[in-house]
């Protein structure tokens, strides 16, 4: 049981260090345009990296997941509302799953 508390303390220190070190080292405004643009896109890339594996395992089969993903991508690129994109992706995944289950 003591080991669990030790693990929690170590992880708390590691997380604190990861967040505190950049604040201590970078005090002024970032003037490098490349670094500034790189840091601007970090939240979007992180969200995509966390979301994409879940997208591919959301349906029972890979074709259903891919159909939902492609449908959502196409609809969002055509500036549809979030509700329409979600409904279209769900419908595409459902219909693809239905077709796959009838064929196999």
Task: Give a brief outline of the structure.
The chain has 104 residues and is mainly alpha-helical.
Task: Outline the low-pLDDT stretches.
Answer: none
Radius of gyration: 21 Å
What's the SSE pattern?
HHHH
Number of helices: 4
Overall SS class: mainly alpha
Beta content: under 5%
Instruction: Find the count of extended strands (DSSP E, 2+ residues).
Output: 0
Biggest pleated-sheet summary = none
Q: Report the mean per-residue pLDDT as an integer.
A: 91
Helix fraction, binned, reads: over 70%
Q: Quote the distance from N terminus to C terminus.
A: 50 Å
Description:
With 104 residues, this protein is mainly alpha-helical. It has a domain at 32-103. Helix content is 83%, strand content 0%. The chain has helices at 2-25, 33-56, 62-77, 82-103. Helix 3 (62-77) runs antiparallel to helix 4 (82-103). 11% of the residues are buried.
List keywords for this structure.
104 residues, mainly alpha, flat
Tell me the layout of helices and strands.
Blueprint: H1 2-25, H2 33-56, H3 62-77, H4 82-103
Helix pairs in contact: 3-4
